[in-house]
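Lecture 7 notes. Example A: sequence first, then its structure tokens.
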Amino acid sequence: MKIRFIPYQPHCFAFGGFEIQMLAAFDAISGLDADIKKLDWWSRDRNFDIAHCWGLDLANYENVKWAKRSGKKVIVTALVGYYETAIQKLKFNISSQIYKERLIKEMAVNIDGFIVLNALQGKIIHEHYKIPYDRIFVVPNIVHESFFEYSKSENQDQNYTLIVGNVCKRKNQLNLAKACIQAGIELVIIGPVIGGEEEYGKQLELLISDQPNIKWIKGLPENSPELLSYYRKCHIFALPSFVEQQPISLLEAAVLKKPLLISDLAYGKQEFYKNSYLVNPNSISSIKDGLLAIHQSYESYLPDPERLQSCTSENVGKAYVSAYKSILGVH
């Protein structure tokens, strides 16, 4: 099997958890029963079997079309919304008639396989895009092996709450910081301000400027020893985002047996995050109450790390290869 990876956009323009997963999946598949390479946009070599596109959105519309015209199988790793509210469902229905979702539906018909993160996203692909279940494959995100190694050693709790990820409105660092200030809880924020969110970053900077109990580290390399150390020493891991799919940072914290504080939304109710404290991301008091509740009954909110074994690089790599073989009809 010859596989070629196609990113959603150049990584110099945007790079986050999705892109980290793309590269982690590439490494996990390499060395298994597949010849995998990153597609060279300047090469005319068509000698491959599967175009693996990352992202079910308009940027891949032409990639899917031309791959199919060239006789290739196409598989897409898709991040889809959960459409939890009536407004979200209405917007999807309108868009599917006159705007973006109409084109995505056209594209979806030509896709041979869809990789989704969990069963709920598989159901959404099935119901919203009319894709049969035999073309849908559930493959979770990868947690780097260093986290599994660290999980074997004793945690060094220093009683602070940790949040990791690009600083932006979606991830809601501002409300978390306000809740920590009200609760008198130490907070460590790790992540740079994402492009276009500079004003949000300034609001956060202003809020914490006179707060000695809040520390903002504006970026650490993924899976670095320093980042792992912050994970290992935190008391609570929090991510009260407004929108997520399957945050890697939560998986990483769960592997290290850290209690999780997550928004009371579909992404927070996945099996990997069982026992998490769920909060209203719009409510500072709800987030504060959650932090205090975890401090008062720490053991009640510990995750089950055994559930995370499917997130090892080895198991995810095998799951991808299985999906490739399925769409090629290879057994």
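Example B, a different protein, same format:
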Amino acid sequence: MWDNTGLEYIGDATPDLQTRMWDTLRGATPKDFTVANPMHLRLRAQANPQRHYEIYIIEAMDGITSDDIRSMFKANPQMAADTIRNCGHCFYSARESREKVVIV
């Protein structure tokens, strides 16, 4: 999730299956994922239309972490956003278009 000021949120929705398995075997309640609810993110985006939020869901290869994506945005934010737009699934977009209506 990013807006016109930069990257705001990255969540890893990959379950830690081994931890969940051991919790289940111990009889403990498996921990939930630490990912924000996508609808909460969308509500935040809709409540702040002046920030032009974009929310994408992407599937990364094994070994690519959320820290890798953060560093990609830090190094070259435009390239990172374009890459995610090309390979991700758009969940919400209020992207500002450069085309403005001109009344003559």
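Note on Example B: Strands lie at 2-3, 6-7, 54-57, 89-93. The first strand starts at residue 2 and ends at 3.
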